[in-house]
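Morning. Coffee machine broken again, so started the prediction first thing and wrote up yesterday's gels while waiting. Chain of 282 residues, entered below exactly as on the submission form.
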Amino acid sequence: MNKSGTLYIVATPIGNLEDITLRALRILQEVDIIAAEDTRQTIKLLNHFEIKNNLVSYYEHNKIEKGKYLIEQLLSGKDIALVSDAGSPGISDPGEDIIKLALEHDVRLTMVPGATAAVMGLVLSGLPTGRFAFEGFLPVNKKLRNERLKSIKNDTRTLILYEAPHKLVRTLKDLRDAFGNRQIVLARELTKRFEEVCRITVDEAIEKYNVESPRGEFVLILEGADDKQMKEESINSWTNISLREHVSKYICDGLSKKEAMKKTAEDRGLSKRDVYNGLLEE
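Came back before lunch.
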C-alpha cells in the first residue's frame, strides 16, 4: 500500500490577496512543507494570513536537485504544498516537472484550484471563448519562435500568450509579421487596483507601447485565424493549375480518380459535378 504523503498543487492569488480560497489557507497551514517558486513572494502571502510553516524554494534552476528532495519527503509520508509566484502552479512554470516526478513515483497528488491569469484574461477579452489555445511564453530563440508562430498561424481558435513587459513590443511585432493586423486584447495587473484590459489591433498595440513603457506581466489574447478567409486563400492557391493537373496530383499521391475529383472539388469550393464537367471541357 502506498503510504506516501500528498502533493497539493495550490493556486494562489494573481494579485488581489482576497482571491485565495479557504481550502488553500487550510492546506498551507496543515502541510509539512511549502515548496515555493519564489520564497520572497510566498512569505508575503503567508505573513498576510499569519501562516507559519516550513518554506523551501523550488524553481527553474534548482528543480532537479530540489525535485529529488521533495519526492523523498513525499515518499517518507510528508505532505507538501506546491505554490508558484502567483496563480496556478504547473502552468508555464517548473511545477510541471515535480508533478511528473510525483506521478512517476506513484505519489498521491491533488489540486486546490484558484485564480489563473490566462482564463481571466480570456473571459474579459470579449473574444470567442468556446475554443481557445494556450501558448504560454513564446520561445526566446528566434528560429524556434518563428517555427512556433508558423505552426499556429492558421489556428482558428482564440490564442492566449504570456509576456513580460520588457519583451512585449518585440512580441507584438513578431505577431504582426506572422499573423497580420489582427484584433488583440492586452490584459495587465489583473485583479489589482490598476487592472487594465485593452482591446485594440496589433498595429495599435505596437503604436501604444512604442510611446508608453509597458508595466506588469501581460496576458495577450489574440483572435484566431479567419476560417472563411483561409478557405478563400486555399481556393485561390489552386487557380494557377488546371483542373486536370489538380486531379492528377491527387492520383499521383495514390488516390483513386473518384477520390481525387472529390478532393479537387473541396479544394476549389466546387461541386463534384462541376469538376467532372470541367474535365470534359479541357
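The chain has three domains: 6-115, 118-225, 228-281. Going to sketch it on the whiteboard this afternoon.
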